[in-house]
Amino acid sequence: MNPSKINHFLETQYGFEWGEMKIERTASGSKWGWVVTIQTSKQIMVIRATPSGIIRFGKPIKKWKEAKK
Fold it and tell me: Distance between CA 17 and CA 58 in Å, rounded?
């Protein structure tokens, strides 16, 4: 782990960066509830709270590497 990332904290427009993680509110609505995304340099995970109060989350998704130009 990069030592400079351990104590990294930065507020963003829709969330914050903390160490290797970027946590952001992604969406909200009366049908789907509230959605938060957690990202690292290698994976993305989506967590959702339904309007009835149930928490749902999916498997972490691997990020695609961008093709070299």
Answer: 21
